[in-house]
Design a protein that fits this description.
Blueprint lengths: L1 H10 L12 E3 L5 E3 H6 L8 E2 L6 E2 L8 H19 L15 E3 L4 E3 L1 H4 L9 E3 H58 L4 H48 L2 H7 L3 H8 L19 H7 L6 E6 L28 E6 L9 E9 L4 E7 H6 L6 E8 L5 E5 L4 E3 L6 E8 L4 E6 L4 E6 L8 E7 L3
Antiparallel strand pairs: 1-2, 3-4, 5-6, 5-7, 8-9, 9-18, 10-15, 11-12, 11-18, 12-13, 13-14, 15-16, 16-17
Helix pairs in contact: 5-6, 5-7, 6-8
Family: Belongs to the TRIM/RBCC family.
Pfam family, one: SPRY
InterPro entries: B30.2/SPRY, B30.2/SPRY_sf, Butyrophylin_SPRY, ConA-like_dom_sf, SPRY_dom, TRIM/RBCC, Znf_B-box, Znf_C3HC4_RING-type
C-alpha cells in the first residue's frame, strides 16, 4: 500500500521543484509542471520553450490549468493537514483541543473555543484548510498578472537590445544619405549641411545614451521581477499552516516591484528639410499607372528581420491576411536607365511596401531577393515601424502618411524615399544590385 501511495505522490510532484504541483499545466509533449516552475525555466520568452523532461520544443504559449491534477493535489494536501492537526504540538494550551481555526486579524491559529471567545469573537476567521486555499488562490491570481509584467518587460528589453545594436548602423546610413543629398541637390549650402549633420550627431548620441540606460534599467527590472516571482512561488509551495503564518505583506511587496515599469525609448530622429530636394525631384516627376494583380503570397523578408511581412502582427507574430494585393507597373514603363521620380499615396494605412524590383521577381513572384523597398508595418494599433530591404534595416523616422516619393537613380544604383508632405528625407538605399530591367512596385493587403 505504501508503494502505491509513493507512486501516486510521485505522479503529483513537479520534476523541476520536487514539490506537489501548484497550478499544474501539461505541455503538448505530455509532461506536467507547476506553471511558475515552467515559466521560470523559460530563459527567453521570445524563443520557444523546451520541456525539461524530454527537451522537445514546445509550441504552446498559453497554458490551461490541469484541473484534474490540481484537485488530486488538493486531496493529498488536505490529508497532510489532517495529520498535522492531530499532533500534540498543535493543541491549545488552554482548552487542550486541536487548533483548527485561522484568525485573519491576528494571523494566528485557534481552537474552536478560542475563536468564539471575547478576544476573537468579532474577528474574521475560518478553517485552516479553507483559509490556506483562499490565500493560495490569491497568490496564483497575483502571479498570473505578475507574469504578464515579466513578459511585458522582456518584450520591451528585446526591443531595446535590437534598437541599441542597430542604432549606430542606422545613424551612419542616414548621415551618408544626408551628406549625399546636400552634395547633389544643394551644393551651395555647406553651412546648412554642416549644421544638419552636427544636429544629427548630437541627437543620435543622446538617443543612444538613453537606449543604453533603458536597456540597463530593463535588465535590472527583469531580475527584480523574477526574484519576486520566485518568492511568490515558494510561498505558494509552503504547507497550509506555514503559508498562513508567513503570508505577511507579500502581495503588497509584489505590487511595489511592479511599479515604475521602464518603457522603450522613442528612438526617432527629427526630420529636417533639405533645401532644394523636393524642387529637384519634382522636375523629374512622372506619372505611373499600376496594373492590378492578386496573389496569395506575401511580401517576406529574410535575415535580421525574419518573419516580417506586410501586415505584420503584434509581438513579432506575422499577420497573414486572406489575400495580399500586389500592384505592378506595365511593360511599357520598365526602367533600364536614367533618373525617375514618382509619388504614391499610402494614406493612413500601415501595411504597404513600395519601391522597385527586378523584372524577374515580378514574373516569378518570389521572395524579395532583388527588390528595394520601403515597408510600413504596425506592431500594435499605436506603434508603427518602417523598414527597408537590401539590407533589411529599421528606419527610426516618423511614420510617413499621405504621399511617399520614390526617386530611382539607375546609374547611381540608389533608391531614395521622401516624405512629401513634410518635404523630408526618409532614407536612401545605396549600392543597389540592379538587374537590366526595373519596375515600380506597390504591395499591400488593405488598401
Amino acid at each position: 500500500m505504501d508503494r502505491i501511495l509513493q507512486i501516486f505522490q510521485n505522479d503529483l510532484t513537479c520534476s523541476i521543484c520536487r514539490n506537489y504541483f501548484i497550478d499544474p499545466i501539461t505541455t503538448d509533449c505530455g509532461h506536467s509542471f507547476c506553471r511558475p516552475c515552467f515559466y521560470l525555466s523559460w530563459p527567453n520568452m521570445s524563443d520557444l520553450a523546451h520541456c525539461s523532461e524530454c527537451q522537445k520544443a514546445i509550441q504552446q504559449r498559453d497554458f490551461h490549468t490541469n484541473v484534474i491534477l490540481k484537485e488530486m493535489v488538493l486531496i493529498v494536501t488536505q490529508g497532510s493537514l489532517w495529520h498535522f492537526l492531530r499532533f500534540t504540538e498543535n493543541r491549545c494550551t488552554i482548552h487542550m483541543e486541536a487548533k483548527q481555526i485561522f484568525c485573519e486579524e491576528q494571523r494566528s491559529l485557534l481552537c474552536i473555543h478560542c475563536s468564539i471567545s471575547q478576544e476573537h469573537g468579532a474577528h474574521r476567521h475560518c478553517s485552516i484548510g479553507e483559509a490556506a486555499e483562499q490565500h493560495r488562490e490569491k497568490l496564483l491570481k497575483t502571479m498570473c498578472s505578475f507574469w504578464e509584467k515579466c513578459r511585458e518587460n522582456d518584450r520591451n528589453l528585446n526591443v531595446e537590445i535590437v534598437t541599441t545594436r542597430s542604432w549606430k548602423i542606422y545613424v551612419t546610413s542616414q548621415r551618408e544619405a544626408i551628406r549625399a543629398a546636400y552634395d547633389e541637390l544643394a551644393p551651395t549650402e555647406p553651412l546648412k549641411k554642416r549644421h544638419h549633420l552636427e544636429r544629427l550627431q548630437r541627437e543620435a548620441k543622446k538617443i543612444f545614451d538613453q537606449l543604453r540606460d533603458s536597456e540597463a534599467s530593463m535588465t535590472n527590472k527583469r531580475e527584480l521581477l523574477r526574484v519576486m516571482y520566485t518568492e511568490l512561488k515558494e510561498m505558494c509551495h509552503k504547507p497550509d499552516v506555514q503559508l498562513l503564518l508567513d503570508f505577511g505583506d507579500i502581495l503588497h511587496k509584489s505590487e511595489a516591484v511592479c511599479e515604475h515599469m521602464p518603457q522603450p525609448v522613442k528612438a526617432e530622429l527629427t526630420a529636417v528639410t533639405i533645401p532644394g530636394m523636393m524642387t529637384r525631384f519634382n522636375h523629374l516627376q512622372m506619372i505611373i499607372t499600376l496594373q492590378h494583380r492578386s496573389t496569395p503570397d506575401h511580401v517576406f523578408l529574410q535575415g535580421d528581420l525574419i518573419n516580417l511581412r506586410v501586415g505584420c502582427g503584434s509581438q513579432g507574430a506575422p499577420y497573414t491576411p486572406p489575400l495580399a494585393e500586389c500592384y505592378y507597373h506595365s511593360d511599357a514603363q520598365t526602367f533600364t536607365t536614367g533618373r525617375h521620380y514618382w509619388e504614391i499615396d499610402v494614406g493612413d494605412s500601415w501595411d504597404w511596401a513600395l519601391g522597385v524590383s527586378c523584372d524577374d521577381w515580378v514574373k516569378e513572384n518570389i521572395h524579395l531577393h532583388n527588390a528595394f523597398y520601403l515597408l510600413g508595418c504596425a506592431e500594435t494599433d499605436m506603434h508603427h515601424k518602417v523598414f527597408t530591404t537590401s539590407p533589411p534595416l529599421l528606419q527610426y523616422v516618423p511614420r510617413p502618411t499621405g504621399r511617399v516619393g520614390v526617386f530611382l537613380d539607375y546609374e547611381g544604383r540608389s533608391v531614395t524615399f521622401v516624405n512629401v508632405a513634410k518635404r523630408t528625407l526618409i532614407c536612401k538605399i545605396a549600392f543597389c544590385s540592379f538587374s537590366p530591367h526595373l519596375r515600380p512596385i506597390l504591395c499591400c493587403s488593405h488598401f
